[in-house]
């Protein structure tokens, strides 16, 4: 028995030496790559396609969302009282628990604006979001924005992307706050936001 044990120890030691010297290789970790875009018509070449406009007059919003020449255009005539009073959504995106995703898109405006972008549950309750609210200061030149997140909640086939264009920094300040009126003045008035090349990709093992 002792002789057999010594032979087994010697064999294990020899295997370790082979691996260390490169004669044998340890199992490789799977290479991870970003998937293709999981959104359909993220470049708006098919017009509206899978996208949904949202003009919430109940909260005082007024405007129009159109899709022409491969660009989504959100015209804000009245901001209203909530960020989503003029918005655009993409619904029914599957997000898997534990998976890592990246969202990427281009955006500009005809005047400086704050656009609130988020990813979350398309069914009630919408909170908490899968990707925390991103309050983006949008300028007059095209710029690419990119956000990564890990899906911490259970797998959901009803995920949703939100571009909320009726946001101003004074909305959630209490009445009487020294900055509330100034923030509102800076953000009011008609404006137009342009969005293009929206992508969501999932990090996955590369195909062999």
TrEMBL record:
Keyword check for Protease: no
GO molecular function, one term: hydrolase activity, acting on glycosyl bonds
Protein source organism: Teretinema zuelzerae
Segment forming the signal sequence: 1-26
Cross-referenced Pfam families: CBM_4_9 (PF02018)
Domain CBM-cenC: 37-164
InterPro entries: CenC_carb-bd (IPR003305), Galactose-bd-like_sf (IPR008979)
Protein name: Carbohydrate binding domain-containing protein
UniProt keyword annotations, A-Z: Hydrolase, Signal
């Amino acid at each position: 028995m002792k002789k057999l044990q010594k032979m087994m120890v010697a064999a294990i030691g020899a295997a370790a030496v082979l691996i260390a010297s490169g004669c044998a290789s340890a199992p490789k970790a799977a290479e991870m790559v970003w998937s293709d875009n999981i959104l359909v018509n993220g470049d708006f070449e098919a017009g509206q396609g899978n996208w949904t406009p949202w003009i919430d007059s109940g909260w005082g919003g007024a405007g129009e969302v159109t899709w022409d020449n491969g660009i989504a255009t959100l015209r804000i005539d009245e901001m209203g009282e909530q960020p989503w009073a003029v918005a655009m959504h993409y619904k029914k995106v599957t997000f898997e628990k534990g998976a890592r995703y990246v969202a990427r898109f281009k955006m500009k405006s005809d005047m400086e604006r704050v656009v609130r972008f988020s990813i979350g549950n398309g069914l009630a309750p919408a909170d908490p979001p899968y990707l925390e609210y991103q309050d983006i200061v949008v300028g007059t030149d095209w710029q690419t924005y990119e956000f990564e997140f890990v899906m911490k909640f259970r797998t959901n086939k009803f995920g949703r992307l939100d571009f909320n264009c009726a946001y101003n920094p004074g909305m959630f300040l209490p009445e009487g706050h020294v900055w509330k009126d100034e923030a509102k003045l800076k953000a009011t008035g008609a404006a137009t936001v342009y969005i293009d090349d929206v992508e969501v990709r999932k990090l996955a093992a590369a195909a062999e």
